Amino acid sequence: MSGLLMMALLTVLTLTLESDHWTAGPPEKIQNHSISPRFCTWQCLKLTLQWPGSFCLGLKNSSQCRIPPNIQNWTIHGLWPLKAHTCCRCWPIFHSDLKELDPELSQLWPSLLKTHSSFLFWKDEWIKHGSCAACVEGMNSPLLYFQICLKLRERFDIDRALEDAGIKPSCNQSYQSDEVKHALAPVIGDDPGVQIQCINEKGREVLVQVKIPLSQNLTLGCLHEEDQGTEPQPTQLWHPCPHDSHIFYFPIKHDRPHQPCD
């Protein structure tokens, strides 16, 4: 998708929603929510998608993991402006703000922790990251931010890309790292900022997460900022998949999410 097309999408989305669902006000009113200008200097974002089938393997307390029965696909972990964090705690978000998106969010952005409801997960993501993304027109309300996240998830259809390349969840079949990279390239490109992450499970490298760099206008790739120290890391066990390694793509096991292949 071209940069001009994405900007047009943002404009249409903003104009469509402005009359009925504007919760935060136009950009010039951001100061009412006490966002310091120093938080609005970021240039890049990371859209992070996670695979539920291996997410639980990296938790210190794996018994806290859950995968809702309806979840069969890659889910959203977050959309994170880099070098900006928790820009405005005073900007509240309520479940009613996301009522019309609830079915899609529950399917594509569920909580995978027993200790967190899905809304609590969304609320945390809004406070930590959405309030910073709100510096950009088109994402400057909870509703708009989460709508953009859902559209990006639709745009980057990792499930379809892997399936089309014949890469399917399995406890026994592994794939060369380059196979996975080439399978995802038609969707996420070959930008050096893309990160395909694995977790080592009993000597096997297991696919767990994909991080996609985006510019402020949501075009693929961003060269303005480095990634280090700018985004949340749920576990030190997650790391870039080794280039010379075989990669496993574990299946989702709803009844034992922390032991999908045991």
The proportion of residues in beta strands is: 15-25%
Number of helices, where a helix is a run of at least 4 consecutive DSSP H or I residues: 7
| Oligomer kind | single chain
Class computed from helices, strands and strand pairing:
alpha+beta
Rg measurement, Å: 18 Å
Shape: globular
Distance between the termini: 41 Å
**Largest beta-sheet characterization:** 7 strands, mixed
DSSP E strands, number: 7
Percent helix among the residues? 25-40%
Element order, helices and strands? Answer: HEHEHHHHEHEEEE
Low-confidence stretches: 1-32, 227-235
Mean pLDDT value: 83
What is the structure about, briefly put?
Helices cover 30% and strands 16% of the residues.
Explain how this protein is built.
This protein is an alpha+beta fold and 262 residues long. Helices cover 30% and strands 16% of the residues. The protein contains seven helices and seven strands, in the order αβαβααααβαββββ. The chain has helices at residues 3-21, 52-55, 102-108, 118-133, 142-155, 158-164, 177-188; strands spanning 44-50, 75-81, 174-176, 195-201, 204-215, 238-240, 246-248. Strands 1, 2, 3, 4, 5, 6 and 7 form a seven-stranded mixed beta sheet that branches. Helix 6 crosses helix 7 (177-188). The longest helix has 19 residues, at 3-21. The protein is globular, with a radius of gyration of 18 Å. Mean pLDDT is 83; it is low at 1-32 and 227-235.
